[in-house]
Amino acid sequence: MRTPRSVAKILVAGPVGSGKSTFVRTLSDTPFVDTDVMASEDIGKLATTVGIDFGTRNVDDVRILLFGVPGQDRFDFMWEVTCEGAQGLVLLVAADRPACFIEAKRTLRFLRERISVPVVIGLTRSDIGEQWDPNEVGAYLNVPPECVVNIDPRDAASCMEALRLLFEYVSPKSNLLTSRESFALV
Ligand SMILES: Nc1nc2c(ncn2[C@@H]2O[C@H](COP(=O)(O)OP(=O)(O)O)[C@@H](O)[C@H]2O)c(=O)[nH]1
Ligand SMILES: [Mg+2]
């Protein structure tokens, strides 16, 4: 493995159950830092993330730092702290939970008021949910449709596709990643 020459901080956000922890865990090539605890209220699953999910991934000469933030908006103070210095945002939205789209929109607005970075929307759980039209989702979230992609966070190649797409927009500005092909090497 080459020694990374630069570091990119990427934020992974989205409503509870959208796949953030899974996304960071799947991509990470170093031990994944997990802060899930038993949920104290009914959020549709047993455990929820109360701290930051942290993982890293080396691609080319870039060490990508993945910061997954808790989904519940009562933790928005952690979004505020963690988004500082981020160079890109992956916002995950569960396709089978359209009621969460409004929450995703609020999260995105909150973050965009604080950081101006490229955004990729990862539509997750499409295998068990509705197949949404990227144009429709993009229009609702105010993101270009080409930045909306269906992903399965349990699948490494799929997660890498979201990162590749994100870095298409990050790289022209920061000249971080040079080779698109690297993202295929999972
Ligand atoms: N079938 C399916 N399950 C998914 C997908 N993405 C995430 N999951 C599952 O959804 C659940 C919630 O994921 P998690 O990563 O904990 O969500 P988080 O709350 O955003 O951190 C887990 O059981 C995942 O395995 C997907 O694309 N398809
Ligand atoms: Mg989580």
Q: Can you describe this structure in just a few lines?
A:
With 186 residues, this protein is α/β, with parallel strands linked by helices. It has helices at 20-27, 76-82, 101-112, 134-141, 156-174; strands at 6-13, 36-38, 47-49, 53-59, 62-68, 88-94, 119-124, 148-150. Helix content is 29%, strand content 24%.
Question: What is the element layout, followed by pairings?
Answer:
Elements: E1 6-13, H1 20-27, E2 36-38, E3 47-49, E4 53-59, E5 62-68, H2 76-82, E6 88-94, H3 101-112, E7 119-124, H4 134-141, E8 148-150, H5 156-174
Parallel strand pairs: 1-5, 1-6, 6-7, 7-8
Antiparallel strand pairs: 2-3, 4-5
Bound molecules: guanosine-5'-diphosphate and magnesium ion.
Number of domains: 1
Q: CATH superfamily assignment?
A: P-loop containing nucleotide triphosphate hydrolases
Gap from first CA to last CA: 13 Å
Helix content: 25-40%
Order of helix and strand elements from N to C terminus: EHEEEEHEHEHEH
- Put simply, the count of helices is 5
Ions, cofactors, ligands: which are bound? guanosine-5'-diphosphate, magnesium ion
| CATH-derived architecture | 3-Layer(aba) Sandwich
Beta-strand share of residues: 15-25%
Give the class from helix and strand content and strand pairing.
Answer: alpha/beta
